[in-house]
Amino acid sequence: MPGGNRMNRSLIMLVLFTSLFTGLAACVPPSNPLNGLDQLWDVPHPSAQPDEEAGKTQNRASDDLLEGTEDDRAKDSFAKEDDLQKNAAQAGDKNEVREPSTGKGSHPSSDEKTSSDDTSPPSEKKQDEAGRIIVDDPLSYMVLVDHRHALPEGFEPPDLVEADIPFDKPSGDERRLLREQAARAIEALFQAAQDDGVELIGISGYRSYDLQASIFAYQVQKKGEKEATRVSARPGTSEHQTGLAIDVADKSGKCLLEPCFGEMPAGQWLKAHAHTYGFIIRYPEDGEALTGYMYEPWHLRYVGKEVATTIYERGDTLETYLKDNRRELIDRQGDAQSRQNP
């Protein structure tokens, strides 16, 4: 029967359609608002997709920042040191550092770090209010100025000249000055270093009493008096005021006024060659018990070629050299005075 066949086909198709719909419905998860949230966490926001061109631009910007990094670091380092000096001058006007009230014949507590023997050869010992010995020959290239030995009040070397070397200070700044013989020696040293591929720059030569007072006051404000005396001299006791000392640095500005300068090629070159130009590393490593100051591989002190070579070869400090050669130095001083007053 044609009509029955059509009905059968319709029923079969209805059954197939129902089965298909039921199967699809089984694949759809129940309606739960929490379903699928964990998948959402894995879908990045469109704005977070990496932009290849933007990445290239950022990399180019980073490369540009890296160009000239050494010069920038050097400028930043030297500017930082100069800012410290300026801050020191400002702080000095506001902070008066009082000398320890120790009385005649006694010394500040920091003096205990140096040799108890008087290593200077003065014939008559005068003392300042803090009990420090006032040196009687401040123009001697062998003058000892430290925690226990002070320069005469108002001392200023008469033969200061501007050293012809690269400095991080502008022309006219007193820190470009040295006594004439020391200036000529540092010029020769800088030239020899340059010939060996070492680029040095001057940081601080001569400092007046007033500038040193400001610097020391700043260090006290920053670190406290006890720690300040390890890194900075009280006014009147600084080698810089003698015009025979100079702080130097690598031209790059790396390890500026830091102990790590001693490990740099510039620091190693100075350690090996400074004595041939009359300079010593005044505050050597492991010498604080004798000198009273922490290791400063950048601090050069002029004493003349002969003495500098002897100190270098013996591994001495200036203190131990003067102590060991006290009698000879006194004799030399006596001979000099005899020649002046026959």
TrEMBL record:
Compositional bias (Basic and acidic residues): 71-85, 123-133
The keyword Hydrolase appears for this protein: yes
CDD domains listed in its UniProt record: LD-carboxypeptidase
Transmembrane stretches, start-end: none
Gene Ontology MF annotations: carboxypeptidase activity
Signal sequence interval, chain numbering: 1-25
InterPro entries, per the entry: DD-CPase-like, VanY-like_core_dom, VanY/YodJ_core_dom, Zn_M74/Hedgehog-like
Location of region: Disordered: 38-133
Domain of life: Bacteria
UniProt keyword terms in alphabetical order: Carboxypeptidase, Hydrolase, Protease, Signal
UniProt name for this protein: D-alanyl-D-alanine carboxypeptidase
Organism: Candidatus Carbonibacillus altaicus
Upper classification of the organism: Bacteria, Bacillati, Bacillota, Bacilli, Bacillales
